[in-house]
Design brief:
4 copies of one chain form a homotetramer. The first copy, chain A, is of the alpha/beta class. Chain A folds into 2 domains: 80 residues, Alpha-Beta Plaits, CATH 3.30.70.260; 194 residues, 3-Layer(aba) Sandwich (Rossmann fold). Helices cover 34% and strands 30% of the residues of chain A. Chain A is globular and about 60 Å long. The relative contact order of chain A is 0.12. Chains in contact: A-B, A-C, A-D, B-C, B-D, C-D. Chains A and D meet through strand 11 and strand 13 of A and strand 11 and strand 13 of D.
Chain lengths: 283, 283, 283, 283
Amino acid sequence: MSKAILLISCPDRKGLVAKVSNFLYTNNGNIENADQHIDAQTNTFFMRIEWALKGFKIPKEKISGEFAKIAHVFDMRFSIHYSSDVPRMAVFTSRFTHCLYDLLLRYREGQFNCVVPLIVSNHPDAKSIAKSFDIPFFQLPVAKKTKKSIERKELALLKKEKIDCIALARYTQIFSESFVKVFENRMINIHHSFLPAFIGSNPYKQAYLRGVKIIGASSHYVTKELDAGPIIEQDTVRISHRDSVADLRRKGEDLEKIVLSRAVRLHLSRKVLVYNNKTVVFE
Amino acid sequence: MSKAILLISCPDRKGLVAKVSNFLYTNNGNIENADQHIDAQTNTFFMRIEWALKGFKIPKEKISGEFAKIAHVFDMRFSIHYSSDVPRMAVFTSRFTHCLYDLLLRYREGQFNCVVPLIVSNHPDAKSIAKSFDIPFFQLPVAKKTKKSIERKELALLKKEKIDCIALARYTQIFSESFVKVFENRMINIHHSFLPAFIGSNPYKQAYLRGVKIIGASSHYVTKELDAGPIIEQDTVRISHRDSVADLRRKGEDLEKIVLSRAVRLHLSRKVLVYNNKTVVFE
Amino acid sequence: MSKAILLISCPDRKGLVAKVSNFLYTNNGNIENADQHIDAQTNTFFMRIEWALKGFKIPKEKISGEFAKIAHVFDMRFSIHYSSDVPRMAVFTSRFTHCLYDLLLRYREGQFNCVVPLIVSNHPDAKSIAKSFDIPFFQLPVAKKTKKSIERKELALLKKEKIDCIALARYTQIFSESFVKVFENRMINIHHSFLPAFIGSNPYKQAYLRGVKIIGASSHYVTKELDAGPIIEQDTVRISHRDSVADLRRKGEDLEKIVLSRAVRLHLSRKVLVYNNKTVVFE
Amino acid sequence: MSKAILLISCPDRKGLVAKVSNFLYTNNGNIENADQHIDAQTNTFFMRIEWALKGFKIPKEKISGEFAKIAHVFDMRFSIHYSSDVPRMAVFTSRFTHCLYDLLLRYREGQFNCVVPLIVSNHPDAKSIAKSFDIPFFQLPVAKKTKKSIERKELALLKKEKIDCIALARYTQIFSESFVKVFENRMINIHHSFLPAFIGSNPYKQAYLRGVKIIGASSHYVTKELDAGPIIEQDTVRISHRDSVADLRRKGEDLEKIVLSRAVRLHLSRKVLVYNNKTVVFE
C-alpha cells in the first residue's frame, strides 16, 4: 500500500493540527499514524503524519506544491516522503565488520526500508562479506595526503548511485567539513561509548581505565565536531571489575549492532527530526 | 494555567483528527499536547488531547455537551478532565509500608496531581505514617465473615470523600466483584512479580524456587480475576544465584515503589486508556 | 596456555576451600580464577577453580584420579575440564535462522571455545548458511510417525561426531524423554519469552494479547518438562502499545540472539553448575 | 551470629588461597562467603572472606596480629572487620532531601549494617526529617570565608562521634583536600549523572542540552578531584525528547536514591576494595 509521510517543524501556533489534518481530510486522506511534539523551551512544533495515498485526491507529484501553501503561512520547514521512493543507503566500514554484518542481515530480512547499492571501506576486510550479499564493494584507502581526492571520488560515487543516506558501520575515518555538509542529518555513525563520555578513539580502553560499572553505545548524525552530533539512540549494559578490555569490547559490540540498527531503522522510517543539535524521535 | 484533557476511543475513520482539532481551533483552543494511536488489529482509534482553557470560547460547563455532538457522529467513547478538578485518591495498604511511604513522599513533593484524603488498612502498621503526613487513617480489618460488611463501610467512606481512584500500596485483601466494578479502571494495584509470571501469593519465593535470573514488578488495574487486569507499567531487575528470597524482596521493593508511582502518575495525568484488558499509555 | 577447570558441588563443611587449594598449591598449581557459593537453603557448597597446567606436578591424565581421593572424603560431585579438550557442539535449528547465524558469526570470531562439526534441522532453510560457514548440514524432517527413528538417527550422528553439547537455535521440535536424558544439562534452548511466562508456542502473540509492557528471552537446559528446565540466562526489553506482534518479534529476536549466545558461552566456559532445577552461574 | 570479614589485596602469587584458607581451617573457622579476583593487568590479587567466629580458636583481639604474620610474607594490605563492631555513619545533605529520606527509611528497615549518630547540613531543610528519625542534626552553613573553620568543626564532631564513614546525600559543598584525606575511601558521594559525563553542577540541564537518550547516576568515593573518584555503582534510565529538565530530575532522583543506597550497602558490608582509582565490588 502506497503511503506518504509528512514531516513538519515550525513555531508553535494555534490551528496547526487543524490546518494539517483538514488538508488531508478534505483531500480524502486516511491518517494511519500521527505524532506531534511541542518543545516548550523553544516553542517549536514538530509533527509526523502518515497517510494512505489510495484515494487521495491530489496526485503524488502535486502534493508538495499544494502543501507548500499552508507551510508558507505557518513558517513551516517540511518534507514529504513516499513509501514508493525507497531510500538508497550506502554503508561505510573499516576493519571491524560486526556492525556491517548485522546491518546486511537485517537488510536481507526486510527490516530496513531501503536499497543498499554499495559498500565503501578503507580496508579490504569487508570485501568477501559484500560479495556474499551481492553488493558492490569499493575499497578506498584514505591517507592524509590522499584524503581530499578520495573524498571527491566518494562523493562522485555516492552521487552516481543517488545515495540518500550513509550508515557508518564502525568506519574509522573522519570526514572533512565539506563532506559532512553534503550529508547533513543523513549520515549516521555508531560510537562505541555512552556519549558524551569517552569521545574519540578506544572508548572501551577509556571506560576500563575509568572503572565505570556500565558501558554504552550511541548512534548520532555526523557533524563537523567529532562525536558531538545529534544523538538518535543509545543503550547501555552492566559490566564489573571482572571484565577486561576484551570483555568490554565483546559486550559493547552487541550494543553497537542494536543501537546502530535502531537508529538506521528510525531514520529510514522518517521518524527522526533534528533541531538544536538534538533529535525528536517519533517511535 | 487551567487546562482540559480530552480522551477519545472509537472505531477508526477518516476525518477524526480533523474534526477534533477543528472543534478546538474554531473555539480558540491552543493544543499543548496531543497523542493518538490506531490499533491495527481492532481498527480502534485512541486520542488524548490537552489544551489551555484560557481564551477558549466554550465555557467549561458546556464543553462536554458541545463535544458530545461530534462524539455521537463518530461513535466515540470520550471523557473530559479539567486540571482544576484535582482527583481525590485513596490509598489502601496492609503490613508492608514501603509503597505507601513512597507514594506519600512523592505526593508531598508535588509529583502527583491529586489529593489524598484518606488511607485505609486492614492492619495498624501504617497508622503513625498516616499521622506524620496528616492524613486520616481508617483501620478496617477484614475477615471472611466480615468482608461484606467491611466493603460496605469502605464504599460508604469512599463515596463520602468523593474518591476518584484508589492506589493499592501492597494491600493484601482481594475485593469482591461488586467492589471492583465500582472502581473499574480506577483502582491501581502493584503486584511484586513480572506478570503474568508468579500470580498470587509470595511471588518472590516463587521466583526464587524457579531460579529466574531477572525479577519484576507490575502495576495494573484491578479486575475480578486475580492479577489479570490491564497492565499499566512494569519494570525488571537482574538477580543471581547469590540472592536469597530476602535479597529478592529488597531488590524487588525498589521496583515496586517505582512501578506503582509511575502507574499512579500516568493515571492521574489521564494518560492511560483501557481496551481489551490492555492499556494505551500516552507517555 | 593450557588450563584446567575443576567444578565441585557437595554438602558444605569446614575445610573445603583449604583442602582444594592445598591440593593445587602442593602440586605447584597457579590459581587463575576461583569462585564459590554456598546455598544457605540446602547447605550446598559450589566451587569453580581454574589453574594453569604449566608446572603442575600431576600429569593431566592422573589429575582426576588424584582429586577423587579428596572428593570421596567430602562427598563431592566433581568434574575436571581441560582447555586442550575443545568441546564439540552441535546446533539444531528450524525455520528461523537468526539465532543460528548469530551463533556461527560469534563462533567464527572466536567468541566460543568449541568446534561445531554439524548443524541439524528439520527444515531446509539453514542449508545455505551451513554451507557458507563450511559446516556439514543434516536435514532430518520430523513427523509424528518418524519421530522415534529420526531421534535414533540423530543420536547416532551425535555419537559418531562425539558431540558434547547441543545448542537449540530456535529448534521447534520437542525431544523425547530418552533423548533429553542423554544430553541432560548439555542441551541449551532459547525460549522467546520471559520464563515462566508464556510457555509453549507463539509467546510473542501471547505477550501481545496479555498487554505486557516488557518482553524477554530465556535460555535454559532442556528437561523433559517443556520450557521448565534450569534457567541459565534471561534478558528483557521494553515495549509499548504501539508495538504489533511483528514488532515484538523483531525486538525479541535481538534478545534471543544475545541471551542464547551468553548461555552457550557460559556453558562452554564451564561456568554453569546445575542443582535443584536451578543454575549457579560463575560469571 | 558473630562474624569476621577479611579483606586482602597483594601481588598475585601461588599459594595465596591455600595459605589464607588454611589459616582459617586450622583455627576451626567456618567460611561462609569467599570471593576473589585477580587483576590481570596489574597482577594484583584481591580477596574477601567471611567466617563465623563461633568456635574460632583465636580470640577476636588477637586475630589481626596472628594474620599479620601471613600478610607480611605475601606483602598483603589487609583489614579485618567484625560484625559486632557496627560502623558509625554520618550523613551530609543540603537542600534536596530525597536521598537523605531514602537512606533513613532503609536504615530504619534494617537494610544497613550501621548506626547513624548524626546528620550534618549546610541548610536547615533536613532538620525536621532528622527529628522525625530521632537523629541529632547539625546545621553548619559553609561560606568561602568560613569554610576552613567549619571543616574543623565538622572533623571534631565526626571524631567525637567516632564516625567511620560518611554518606553524602546530595551534599553540595566541596571538601578541602585535607578533609578528603581523612576520609579516604570512606566518604561516598552520589553524582546525578552517568560519570564521567556531565561532571560538576546541574548535570540534568547538561544532559538535556546535549540531547542524550539515557541518563544515569553514579556513586563514588570522594577524592580531591571533583566527581573523579573510584566508582562504586551506577545505573541508567531511558528518557526521550518529551522529557523536560524537570522530568529528567524526577526520573533521575529515583536512580540517585537506588544507586547511593546500593553503594552505601556495599561499603558497609565490606564488599568494596579500592585500587588504581577503581573498585572491586564483591557482590
